Queue: 4 jobs
Job 1
Amino acid sequence: MRNSLVKLLLVITLFLAACQVQSSIPSLLSPQAHVEVIGEPLPHDPQAFTQGLLVHDSYFYESTGLVGQSTFRKVEMESGQVLAQTQLKPEFFGEGLALLDGHFYQLTWRNRIGLIYDAETLEEIGSFPVDGEGWGLTTDGQSLIRSDGSATLTWHEPLSFAPIKSLQVNLEGQPVTQLNELEYIEGLLYANVFLTDTILRIDPASGQVLTVIDASTLRQESTKTEINNVLNGIAWDPETKSLYLTGKNWPELYKVKIVDGPLPTATTRP
């Protein structure tokens, strides 16, 4: 009964957020770039409610969400096999994930706490306070960068998570809300917009959106009927210069390239 109530409340929250997204950022309907899949899709756990994704030493590391189901896991890239997993406390809702200076940092949504893991052993070694909601998390190599569902990104000190600065993200002079999963790639920030198939390329110095990227071809027909099953995993492999995308409860994960120009009308996912 409790799980059913939690799921119902989550669906209502997502529906209201979807209404806000559609009304506040109509410019996202005009993308300047799109993604194309490279090679065959990789397997992804369809039970993984993906909240954070990254690549380290040729493995995926993933944060999954939902109350009572949240995890931090290490995943083999080619097979999708979960090699190691930590179950979060039942009351925690896992969110964004980042790796900095030998530590994994995992946010929780509204629990006002984040978790720290040793990058070698994957053991939980500490925690940090979060002032507000935790959504996406990434790093520029010096600081941790957090989204909270608003148009604001906040830079934090590692370990203590003390705030350093904040920045509003704007598109055509208007703030873009519902910023979610984050990835820092070669000096630029990438953020997906919650409940859309859109990824933004952002200047981290000014907060200006540089490119609106359409990733709508990735979502399978089987996931389109579930409001929860949205794009929500962006991972960059700096060793191979490869970009990977997936979503909540998606059965596949994709290596992609970003191509200038809107998506051709007749394009369908391979």
Job 2
Amino acid sequence: MKSEEKLQVALLRSLLKNKKTVIAFVLSVALVSIVFSGPFFLAPLYKSEVIFYPPNTSSNKTLIQYDVRFGSEKEIDQHIQVLKSNLVRDSVIKKFNLIAHYGIDTTKTVWRYYLNKEYNEKIAIERTRYNALSVTVLDTDPVLAATIANTIVEITDAIKATILRKNLSAALSNLEKDYSNKVKEFDVFAANINRIVKDNYIPNLNLKNESFVERMKKQIDLIRELTNNGSADFDLKKQYNYEAMLAQLAELQSSYEQASSNLNTNFPTCYIISPAQVNYQKDSPNRLLIVALTTVLAGLFCIVWMLFSIQLKQVKHALES
């Protein structure tokens, strides 16, 4: 008989001889796993998920031109960064007092590390296969899990709106400065032309004057008439410079009006297609899986132990002989 066959026979005999002990050990392990996988030792976790599309924050003109209903790839990535930012995390932690809820001991020097670790383990932010975004929350309280998931989307909208409003305010301020500088330059040029034509054909400009473009077009017609009548000191070069400067002013005012309009309107929020709902069906731990896995491992442990015992006896027998 081969050594492998002898080993298999010896293992089978050992199992039959110690079957009561093996069964008792496996059942004991199964019983222990049943007890320790219960809610008293492992609190059940409930899952809630909200699915949404990030908004498109482009101007109304861009939306009409390209018919973009949801955020672009760039805006999706930006929205994910905001969702995962410290601003959102700290706001959620403060709003729901997650330090106490997660049982974080703030007397330890590394308490913030454990707080962030717990937060990242309980809250997941992912992109779906259809380019939507999902926020999944696991918590021992099913109602709180749904509330946190929906609130994260709301906080992200608020933070993103604040950032956009701040950027638009800065852009608007820069446009005002550029426009004021251009108006001063235009006034100097207009004064020279007025001195030549002996009349106020070109009035001073006002940033808030919505009809100045139409007024300037009339002035162009007057200047062209002067040019055609042979004004000695007014040539086509001055007319060209005037028209180019007027076009720049018109473009600056258009940009200013667009930025001002965007600043004074409400920013779009996320398009929630599946809000988080309270789910009373626990997601984890899977008690049946834990019990089954530990029972199988207990049986394998018995087999390995018996194989080790048989091999040890064979080695001792060989040494004695």
Job 3
Amino acid sequence: MAFARLLRASAFALAAPLCVSCPGTKPKEAAMAHAPVRIAFLHHSTGEAVWKGGLAPFFEAWNARNGTDYRITEQNYPMAKGNHPRIGALLPARVFNAIFRDHYPWENNPYDYWNLWVAHRGQDRDRSEANLDDLARDFDVIVFKHCFPVSSVADDDGAPSASSRRRTLANYKLQYEALKARMREFPRTTFIVWTGPALTESATRPGDAERAQRFAAWVKDTWDEKGDNIFVWDFRELETDGGPYLKPGRSVSAGDSHPSEDFAKRVAPLLGRRIVDVIEGRGDTSSLTGF
């Protein structure tokens, strides 16, 4: 599906008013028509680019136009600051990491969500990072994602394990199945996960790209199920038009797979619309890309 077509359709969708009780919708859970709705957007650098592309202004405009009260908050996750969040906010990351070693690594792969949300729960946290109990207590909707290293998917090693940091398709699937079971323990919280951001052709290998593409397809077609509290935003489709690589012109450069500023501005409203559709009970019937 061409990205230009998505943009034309999204312009129409953004102009249309929201309908909480539209006929034919079949929400996974009761639509959150009450206000306010507290939304957490957990990200690192790729998500930060989309956030800066206009996600907060999207919700400000949407609330003003539709009388809703959807409150979105962004935060780095994991924060990778340990017990030193104030100092970490002041020092450059390179300096902070050279001084302090007792913090979580700057990683948000499937393993890391499994580790932080499944392996650690209740009062048990890994190096002061919030676990799912903490996040679900503070937010009604949790939007989370991985950065583009998730698309460096190696060959399976024949010993799949959810507790393995190795980025393989088999490990990813085990980690995601465990995450799904864990998220379903919080039926009053809604989750939206991005499909994994792609890499440019020059930044990956064909086998890795093909496995990353297969993982994204599995997430959408098999892992995600109707009738629960978990949804998908298909960011990868917007990046790749269904191919294995991030399209030229949509990244910072051929060697830098972060989204370009222009591309981030184009997709931020699509993420906003996808979140709104999920909040209002249309997550199972509306487009995964948000158009």
Job 4
Amino acid sequence: MRLAIRHTTRYRFAGPVRHGIQRLRLTPKATQGQAVLSWAMDYEGAREELTYDDQNFNHVTLLGVEEGVKEVSVTCHGEVKTEDRSGVIGQHSGLLPLWAFLGRTPLTRPGPKVRQLIASVERSGEGMVATLHNLSSTIRDRVEYVTGSTTVRTSAEEAVVAGKGVCQDHAHIFIAAARALEIPARYVSGYLMMDDRVDQEATHAWAEAYVHGLGWVGFDVSNGISPDPRYVRVATGRDYADAAPVTGISSGAVTEALTVDIAVEQQPAFQSQSQSQSGGGEQSQRQSQRQGPEKANGRKNQQHSMQQQQGPTIRPPV
């Protein structure tokens, strides 16, 4: 599947900025089942200071906010080709050892309610993947998806106590529970192509767990499925703080308004093939061609695909 993405973030400040730094994790990963065909970033009111890959192999861009500006905008755009790997990313890579994803963080530390939730999860005789799907289903049943009910500082325990949250909270609860079961787990931020719309107001979030014999496997708790070709992985980490799309500090003014506009579209397969043969540029129309599971994943990948639960209508990223 070939996806075209455009993501614009605008900050409006109450007064002129004296100094500001923005850290961006907005470049998709080149990873198993995902190839970045093109990607560019444009800035207004800011300048690029440096880029680097962090401990999670996230590509990070540091921006310096220009002195005296009252508005900053960042626009990312490009195309990513994805394949259906039944949510399987594969073996671990990166600078952090696998055991680092067993540690607790302030956002994923399990409390009494998370432990009660874990105790209620049915252990499947079909293996760990099926049990993790049961965990995902239990979280979805216990924590209602309610837009605007939490913030980026809400912990997994707080979301379970409240009984409501969004994709970020679902991911944190899954991670907290998996780690309590001694399963390495991590947070993923990225894009999700919606079936009923192009324009969106936020990125999406889901979780990945490390399963022996498969490696990292994705679980989108909010939608009750493992990621398919509609998903684009951008950043990963121990929790939201490690994978946040945009973070920063400024002095001289406070942020008065923040707006985010995202468009994720499919590019027609016939245009992709024609464009490849002719060497043409970016096309305006989008569609895609769904690819089957990679043969390299073999029988285990196919078994995982069969075990995926069919979730509700895809929820919008929040």
